[in-house]
TrEMBL record:
This is Sugar kinase. InterPro entries: ATP-NAD_kinase_N (IPR017438), ATP-NAD_kinase_PpnK-typ_C (IPR017437), NAD/diacylglycerol_kinase_sf (IPR016064). It comes from Geothrix edaphica.
Length: 298
């Protein structure tokens, strides 16, 4: 912390399911009417919202009045300018940490779980009630930090995509994706349901399910180890396409090169956020590998 500069906490949240229902239907009673028509109950969704609101209030109270603070909605992340010494607090589901990670340059992230009965807590590791001690310890440098590996895709037109869990390459309508895949001196034309390149953090989710379905012989990477796993989904063998280059590990300095043979519906996106995708039309080249950035997770 720079001498004389007050700590700044950037508290990142996202709308709850209850708030999303209100935005979609206008009023609480209209939302209740719509859910009742589907045989669903608003009460549980509202109770979850109240737990999150209570957690938010307790975290805000835990931030000393002399510190600087910013309350930031997830939707505003792309336009927000972080300071190098910000303490970033993600209050919500595990995916919120992944949403935040790609906008940071070394800032530490504290994940707080507003509802441990519903949220797994793989990335939001700490209960919201622990915020008073955690904030003080974090600012004083008394907390351990995991430097988690991230994955990047660089396109030949200069665009770059960064992700904490995985990057998907494929067809935006989930039809067969056609492309050429190159790893070192091996190259293969493929038709598949797309491919993912995953970090150790992502190895608890999408990559894990593919790993199990493939009965893969190798071990998935750990979150802090600088290796990635890649998987091709449902590769189709034909006269023109092969299935010999469908999974493996990428270490430091190794990259996977993909050349699109799709028209205007080829796409790349990270961490399951399809709305934040990059177009990947015919002839475009993407190079996927380890990112220089790491997520510094408390």
């Amino acid at each position: 912390m720079a001498l004389g500069k007050l700590p700044r906490v950037v508290l990142v949240t996202r709308p709850t399911d209850y708030q999303a229902l209100l935005m979609a239907h206008g009023t609480r009673e209209q939302a209740r009417f719509i859910l009742n028509g589907h045989g669903q109950n608003l009460d549980e969704v509202e109770a979850q919202h109240l737990r999150t609101e209570q957690a938010l209030a307790s975290v805000l109270r835990a931030i000393p009045l002399t510190w600087r603070r910013v309350l930031l909605d997830r939707a505003d992340l792309p336009a927000f300018v972080f300071e190098p010494e910000d303490l970033v607090v993600a209050l919500g589901q595990d995916g919120l940490v992944a949403n935040v990670a790609k906008y940071l340059e070394g800032q530490r992230v504290l994940g707080l779980n507003p509802d441990p009965e519903r949220v797994d807590g793989l990335l939001v590791k700490h209960p919201a009630e622990a915020a008073p001690d955690l904030l003080q310890d974090a600012v004083a440098g008394r907390v351990p930090v995991e430097a988690r590996t991230m994955v990047e895709a660089r396109l030949d037109d200069g665009q770059r995509l960064l992700a904490l869990n995985e990057i998907f390459v494929g067809h935006s309508s989930h039809q067969s994706a056609r492309y050429r895949l190159r790893l070192g001196d091996r190259e293969e034309r493929q038709s598949s349901s797309g491919l993912i390149v995953a970090t150790g953090t992502g190895s608890t989710g999408w990559a894990r399910s593919i790993h199990q379905a493939h009965h893969s012989a190798f071990t998935l990477p750990k979150p802090t180890v600088p290796t990635l796993a890649y998987f091709v989904r449902e590769a189709f063998p034909s006269r023109a396409t092969g299935t010999s280059l469908t999974e493996g590990i990428l270490g430091p300095g190794q990259t996977l090169v993909v050349v699109s043979e799709m028209n205007d519906l080829g796409t790349l996106f990270g961490d399951g956020i399809e709305a934040d995708r990059v177009a990947f039309p015919w002839g475009s080249l993407a190079t996927l590998g380890l990112a220089q950035e790491r997520l510094n997770l408390i």
